[in-house]
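Postdoc handover notes: sequence design on the structure in folder B. Input tokens:
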């Protein structure tokens, strides 16, 4: 569970994310957004996923304000547009957009992004870095180096900051 906030712009964050992670991040984003809807409106009739990862810092961030929720929804939507084929979570976009437009939120403004740029099993931890976007860029550089995979950005753009 994470939000790879590589940039303040949700579209740029989606463009910089490699193709391999897009499917997983679409699902995780849909889970966090669905949890936000169910947490903030337990009686919702919107067809969203069940509660999941309620206490994860990224899930808490998503439900903290309308702007946070909208940022994550925009990021998820841009990731979906950059892939080939269907994704079940994309079916939730209209319902999630309806909630973004009309639902209750404790606040309206964008709050500082949750910084979960760490994986202690791999010895990677940028969670104390003060610039969250830079922390995620450093984190992704480390993750991209460790795998024996071919990284692609078919619909995005390989980041100029990639090592």
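Designed sequence:
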């Amino acid at each position: 569970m994470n939000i790879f906030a590589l940039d303040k712009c949700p579209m740029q964050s989606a463009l910089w994310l490699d193709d391999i992670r897009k499917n997983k991040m679409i699902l995780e984003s849909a889970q966090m957004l669905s949890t936000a809807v169910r947490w903030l409106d337990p009686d919702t009739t919107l067809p969203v996923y069940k509660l999941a990862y309620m206490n994860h810092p990224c899930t808490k961030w998503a439900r903290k304000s309308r702007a946070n929720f909208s940022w994550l929804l925009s990021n998820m939507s841009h990731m979906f547009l950059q892939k080939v084929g269907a994704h079940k979570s994309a079916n939730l976009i209209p319902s999630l957009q309806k909630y973004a437009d009309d639902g209750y939120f404790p606040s309206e403004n964008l709050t500082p992004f949750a910084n979960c740029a760490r994986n202690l099993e791999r010895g990677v931890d940028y969670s104390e870095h003060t610039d969250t976007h830079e922390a995620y860029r450093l984190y992704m550089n480390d993750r991209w180096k460790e795998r024996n995979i071919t990284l692609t950005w078919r619909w995005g753009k390989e980041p100029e900051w990639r090592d």
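Context for whoever picks this up: The helical segments are 10-16, 19-40, 57-64, 66-81, 93-102, 132-146. Don't rerun without checking with the PI first.
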